[in-house]
From TrEMBL:
<keyword id="KW-1133">Transmembrane helix</keyword>
<comment type="similarity">
    <text>Belongs to the universal stress protein B family.</text>
</comment>
<keyword id="KW-1003">Cell membrane</keyword>
<feature type="transmembrane region" description="Helical">
    <location>
        <begin position="6"/>
        <end position="24"/>
    </location>
</feature>
<keyword id="KW-0472">Membrane</keyword>
<feature type="transmembrane region" description="Helical">
    <location>
        <begin position="89"/>
        <end position="110"/>
    </location>
</feature>
<keyword id="KW-0997">Cell inner membrane</keyword>
<dbReference type="InterPro" id="IPR019598">
    <property type="entry name" value="Universal_stress_protein_B"/>
</dbReference>
<keyword id="KW-0812">Transmembrane</keyword>
<dbReference type="Pfam" id="PF10625">
    <property type="entry name" value="UspB"/>
</dbReference>
<protein>
    <recommendedName>
        <fullName>Universal stress protein B</fullName>
    </recommendedName>
</protein>
Amino acid sequence: MMSGDAILLALFLVAVVNVSRYVSTLRTLLAVMRECDPLLYQQVDGRGFFSSQGNVTKQIRLFHYIRSHQYHNHHDPVFMEKCSKVRRLFILASTYLMVFFVSIFVVAYLGL
């Protein structure tokens, strides 16, 4: 039987890989957005998106844009595909992080 530490380490590594895939795809989306839709890029604070001075309300605007599938009306198929991929990876990374945090409490509670 596997120890609780090994399970947590494996889940943590999977979560880190998926979060890094999400962030990488988000950066790619912002680069594509800068070329195909400069107004939206400016509205979501594309230049300062990953900086410490980034405007959170503008970042949330991108979250709502992708969550509500507004990119389906866009003219660029590459942009639409990147938005779809960001959405899928966000859901996947969020799920893995929740599973990791729940497993921490399960391992601590069961004493594995």
